Amino acid sequence: MSSGKKIFLWVTYYVIAFVVSMALVSIPDWFGAEGGVLTTEGQRIDNLFWGMVILSVAILSVILATMTFALIHFRAGPRDTGDGKYMHGNNAMELGWIVVPTIIVLALSWISYEVLVDNDQVLAEGAGERHDRGGVLEVDVIGFQYGWEFAYPEVGVATLTNYVIPVDEPVVYNVTARKYGMDPDGGVRPDVIHSFWVPASRIKQDGVPGYWSARSWTAERTGTFDIVCAELCGALHYQMLGEVCVVERGVYDAWLVELGEATTDSDTAGSVSYPCSPEGEEQTLAVRSYQNDDELLGIFTEEQGLLLESTLEASMPAAKKDTSA
Amino acid sequence: MSTTTTSTAPAARGAGHGTPGPRYVGGLIGFLIGYAVSHLLLRLFQGWGGVDPSYTVVEAAGIGAGLGPIIVGLMGGVPGLVAGLFGRRVILGSNIFAAWLWAVVGFLITTLIVIGVRLAFGMDPISLLPIVTFGSLGAYLGMTIGIGALGPWLRFLAGGDVDLAGDHSQHGAKSWKDYFGFNTDHKVIGIQYIVFNFMAMAIGGMYALFMRAELAQSGMQFMDGSTYNGAFTVHGSVMLFFWIIPIFAGIGNYVIPLMVGAADMAFPRLNGLSFWTLVAAFLTSVAAILVGMYEAGWTAYAPLSTQSEIGLQQLLFALTVQFVGASSIMTAVNFIVTIVGMRAPGMTMWRMPLFVWANLTTSFLVVLGTPFIGGAQLMVLTDLTMNTQFFNPILGGDPLAYQHVFWFYSHPAVYIMMLPGFGIVSDVITTHARKTIFGYKALAISTVAIGFLGFAVWAHHMFTSGMPDWFRVVMMFLTMLIAVPTGVKVLSWTATLWQGRIHMRTPMLFVLGFLFMFTVGGVTGIMLAAVPFTIHVHDSYFVVAHFHYVLFGGSTMTAFAGIYHWYPKITGRMYDERLGKMHFWGLFITQNLVFFPMHWTGVQGMVRRYADHPERFDTINMVMSIGAIVMAAVTLIFFYNMVNSWRRGPKATGNPWNSHTLEWQVSSPPPLFNFYDVPRVLDEPYPFGAAEPVHGVVAEKGKRTADHPILAGSGAGTSQEQQG
């Protein structure tokens, strides 16, 4: 076989492998969950993902094309006891497949770095400290066994399980986990690591007891989106679900006023209306007072314990209630 | 038969031939004592540990309450029965019954010591966690003495006249029973490892099936959250600690000394001890399952693993890790010394088969890395038992510290799980494509390069943990760079196929399947190195898909390739090619069916380690669960093929694949000490297609290597030796 024909055949196999693989990876709807990506930042991540998928298929096709070629043209016959061509390698080729992949991965790292920088723009532009980010809306996200608290430092109140944000506005999330938890006998023990993930936003951040970590994203449309815990946190890990409710600015402002008036006493639970309640159903969110103070995360009063027990289930979206049985 | 047994043999024989009546009475008494002691121990665990008995795995599997204690009782009762029946022959012999009995004795003695010490210092005498910690060490010591691993060492320590180096009394297997006792023959140990590992794989796979059954539909089917957490933790740790890592130690144990032309490993007794340490680790792990599954994930992140609710199980998990680590390090040291110091004359570093290169690099990773997981778990252990607060955020401990120490081992560990497989791929692909490996030196050096880079990328498992950005970016660049040596390997293997004469035998099919699966796992690895994307899919099913592509599609496929490739050498018989191909195609199709959709569900927001999922994932999860069941059925074909071929397969010649490396130049299975004379290596390991394709020469039975026609008169051997 002439080398020209070999190259032609190889290229043919490559094109077939590429087209078939591309068709296969295009079958699933990668981005469609919950009506597609929610955030500006997430859109960049989806673009990066799709770019990497195409690159991956291109790389995989090199292996597939070469394997196909070899398996078709270099198969031994049933009684063939001979050996293949005696050769030890090809320095030019080996250098090539060191240099080219290095360039590819460095370029990919650089592109990823750019996306990372773009996505952290809001954080970089703020003054950098928690609760001092130049007027950007901040929500403190506090994970605990087993639920989420979302604190609005402006008004000093925290909601349980679900929270509300305005559309088209960057929100900074300061994520942590409670230091103190409660064991089944009512004693105090350390709480554990949780991870705050809204899949539709494409952003997640671990909440580590004792650490505050910040992420930010901008929701681009209204609606409700799932919150899950992405770090194994114990027996009811799978029930650490919640919902983010994205509403118009006006609705949010009214809701925040109501939230600010819901409770002032750190030991008592209050409640506030939930703007994303399903039609014909008035849901409320349990709230408690949230002093803007690290130490408070450690205080775990009996009332707040009761608050968890009694309201966790009530404030859970209806569809998820039956899973707790 | 061991030296210990030899010394007590006359008395033991007397006991064994007693009249039937008293023997049966003795057996009954032994059974009752054993049963009662085990029951007391179980009650001690469950009662004092405050563990809810409903957590036990037996009940989790739905077999029914009350069966767990009976099983535990039988674990003591059966050895008691055997001891009662056969008396001193068992109690003082080197066998698994003695090992089990002395383990219990060791546990009880240490428990009494702990209680005594606590009384002496005025503490509450009975405290479960210290008792279990020290009791496990006592049990381990008792077990190793009982199995006969320490006998000569102890007599040497006591000043006895023992020839440690020349002692071959426990070498080689004469009957199948010898595989259940202590042995110093690397071939016996290799088989012990491999069989043990396949048993562990079956158990780990069973837990995967439990998980797939639960996940087949949304909503909770038959597990609660704890049980599900336990299922994936047991699945993960059993598969990693008792399957992927040791299967390569097993294959390496059998093959490496043969490949380098040595009579055995450098430290045969240590080699046996490291296998039995792995068994001790497994039993510790099983004990944890019986008192309530450990359920903090195989990563056992603190402070979840140090929470008191799962204290006892997690303590046993920490001890399991210590034993596994000790076993790994012992084996690795043995490999390093064997490979560096015991190669046949003429085998320069550049003439070593690539499996040897891979094992050498892996062994260095094990020796350098394993202390870190041991350290991380030791800190968990002291947090649980000694009131240290390494990871307790309330008292100033740092939960992130655990992750850093843990991943500093556990990232190199993924190469510990993969590099030996790379070595197998190199050996198999060159043999069955009948062509010299493409870029031998590039393959060897890239192995070492992966080993080095592997230590510099641990924090890519922690991209969402809240580390500073500069650190994440550094880790991203370094992680991406690992793609380069890995790419060199994949491309070199593919290029090896070019202009070869490819025989599509089962090992080759597994290697070709590996090339596809591993490339997919590799490119998703590159994706996961990109920080912004990982921020989205970290701890989602995308990650589960990625590491099953590299650990199942990668490591496990290479392990199967290695098993099929060396099956004739190990058993002396040929496996059934038709069943082998069925096994491959079944496994290849089902694993893509099970693991590929996980990429999609992960990107869509399905969380890893959730016992439940939203309804929108129902259909695809049902498909994956059905795939998993078929996969399990396909694996049964493999087991049938292995067992049946060993008994009835056609006899294998010494060199069925017409290969050139040293292990194929001897009979199948090899003689007791591998070679009749020290072999001599003359040239490259894979001289397929060369004018005079000779890697090395070995002596015929009763002859010397120098008498070999290639060496005799030519004088080639001496000049080559100097290069070594």
**Secondary structure: number of strands of chain A:** 14
- Order of strands across the biggest sheet of chain A? 10-5-1-2-3-14-13
CATH homologous superfamily designation of the largest domain in chain A: Cupredoxins -  blue copper proteins
Count the domains of chain B: 3
Give the biggest beta sheet of chain A: 7 strands, mixed
Helix-strand topology string of chain B? HHHHHHHHHHHHHHHHHHHHHHEEH
Number of domains of chain A: 2
The largest sheet of chain B is: 2 strands, antiparallel
How do the SSEs of chain A run, as a string of H and E? Answer: HHHHEEEEEEEEEEEEHEEHH
Low-confidence spans of chain A: pLDDT under 50, at least 5 residues? 298-325
Plain-language structure description:
The complex is a heterodimer of chains A (325) and B (724). With 325 residues, chain A is of the alpha+beta class. Chain A has 2 domains: 3-72 and 90-119, no CATH class; 137-324, Immunoglobulin-like, CATH 2.60.40. Chain A has helices spanning 3-26, 40-73, 91-119, 121-125, 249-262, 302-314, 318-321; strands at residues 137-144, 147-152, 157-160, 162-166, 170-177, 180-182, 188-190, 194-198, 203-207, 213-218, 223-229, 242-247, 269-273, 284-289. In chain A, the strands form 3 sheets. Chain A has a 7-stranded mixed beta sheet, with helices on both faces. In chain B, strands 1-2 form a two-stranded antiparallel ribbon. At the A-B interface, helix 2, helix 3, strand 7, strand 9 and strand 11 of A face helix 10, helix 16, helix 17, helix 18 and helix 19 of B.
Short synopsis of the structure:
The complex is a heterodimer of chains A (325) and B (724). Chain A is an alpha+beta fold. Chain A has helices at 3-26, 40-73, 91-119, 121-125, 249-262, 302-314, 318-321, and strands at residues 137-144, 147-152, 157-160, 162-166, 170-177, 180-182, 188-190, 194-198, 203-207, 213-218, 223-229, 242-247, 269-273, 284-289.
Topology record:
The complex is a heterodimer of chains A (325) and B (724).
Chain A: H1 3-26, H2 40-73, H3 91-119, H4 121-125, E1 137-144, E2 147-152, E3 157-160, E4 162-166, E5 170-177, E6 180-182, E7 188-190, E8 194-198, E9 203-207, E10 213-218, E11 223-229, E12 242-247, H5 249-262, E13 269-273, E14 284-289, H6 302-314, H7 318-321
Parallel strand pairs in A: 1-5, 4-12
Antiparallel strand pairs in A: 1-2, 2-3, 3-14, 5-10, 6-7, 8-9, 8-11, 11-12, 13-14
Chain B: H1 3-16, H2 20-48, H3 57-60, H4 67-86, H5 88-91, H6 96-120, H7 128-147, H8 151-157, H9 186-215, H10 225-260, H11 268-290, H12 311-341, H13 354-385, H14 399-416, H15 419-432, H16 440-454, H17 469-497, H18 506-529, H19 531-537, H20 541-571, H21 577-603, H22 618-648, E1 680-681, E2 696-697, H23 716-723
Helix pairs in contact in B: 2-4, 4-6, 6-7, 7-11, 7-12, 9-10, 9-11, 9-22, 10-11, 10-12, 10-20, 11-12, 12-13, 13-14, 13-15, 13-16, 15-17, 15-18, 15-20, 16-17, 17-18, 18-20, 18-21, 20-21, 21-22
